[in-house]
Amino acid sequence: MKGDKVMKLALFSTGCWLALGLTFASPGAAHAQAAPQPAAQPSFENDQVIVNAPHPAVDVPGSTRKMHDHKLNRVMVYLHPGGERLHYLDGGIVDLKWQEGEVQWSPASGFHYSEIPPELDPRVWKTPAFTGPMIVDIGIKKAGSATTKASTPLDAVRVALGAFTLEFENSQVRVLRLRLAPRQRVPLHALADRLVVYITDQHIQQVSAGQKTDTIEQHKASEFSWFGASTQTSENQDDSRVDAIVVEFKN
User: Fold this and answer.
1) Nearest to 237, CA basis, from 213, 214, 208, 211
2) Which residues 6+ apart lie within 8 Å of 22 measured at CB?
3) Is 208 helix (H, G, I), strand (E, B) or coil?
4) Closest by alpha carbon to 143, among 170, 162, 164, 120?
5) Which residues pair with 247 in a beta bridge?
6) Distance of alpha carbon 26 from alpha carbon 13, whole angstroms
7) What confidence score (pLDDT) does residue 39 get?
8) Local structure of residue 127 (DSSP, 8 states)
9) Could you give phi then psi for residue 90, rounded to 5 degrees?
10) CA 6, CA 22: separation in Å to the nearest integer?
């Protein structure tokens, strides 16, 4: 199976944190002000999704700090353990924590700025310091439908229970986790339009329904791919496990 696919690194690293107006808390200082950064660009965008969109910090009346907002609901896939503290314009404070490979729903939100305490920043506490991509930020453009449910007999969760498990579902997305043991094969299964985020390196053979030829998909951890709706078999070609997040879109 080889669809309209884009494969990119999830380049949501230090520079992108700064583009959000994030600051990095350090011992003995209230905060460290981020230096001005050049305008960032999304990693990927189509009519349904925008990945790692820039969220520029701006001056907001009533705040002494530059802030940013999120106009879209998002799916956040975390590639490292960590967390952040969100300071909202109304004075509210929200502390977030996550583990490597975790996926969370993040509703659209108003103006705020963010700090990463040193104890939650892997570039501080981890030895050697974490230098790779940190987050895949998936903004959902379309409203979706609360009545849309997977109904095909070949639905991936139905025919490959254990390989595909449901993380969460709402009116816009269904989010699945794919876990394959070494050399494991998944029988014929159907998936909707989707963005796949690779938590581990992967080497998978896929054969689309009705086709005699196969496709070999090779990806590094932190990369992602866009696929249109398709039906296929999948087989892990390696002696190591596979872990990925599959975000299906309802439109």
Assistant:
1) 214
2) 34, 84, 113, 114, 115, 116
3) strand
4) 170
5) 175, 195
6) 18
7) 53
8) S
9) -80, 5
10) 28
Q: Could you tell me the end-to-end alpha-carbon distance of the chain, in angstroms, rounded to an integer?
A: 22
Q: Give yes or no on whether 8-140 and 156-249 have one common fold.
A: yes
Its pTM stands at 0.84
Q: How do the domains of the chain map onto residue ranges?
A: 8-140, 156-249
Place of tokens 């007999």: 153
What digits encode the pLDDT tens for the residues 93-151? 999 999 999 999 999 999 999 998 888 888 787 777 777 788 999 999 999 887 777 77
Residues in the chain: 251
d(CA 77, CA 139): 11
Spatial distance between the Cα atoms of 34 and 57, rounded to a whole number of angstroms = 11
d(CA 9, CA 126): 21
Q: Which residue has the tokens 């903004």?
A: 139
Q: What is the CATH number of domain 156-249?
A: 2.60.120.10
Task: Assign domain 8-140 one CATH number from 2.60.120, 2.40.128, 1.10.260, 3.90.1720.
Answer: 2.60.120
239 pLDDT more than 90: yes
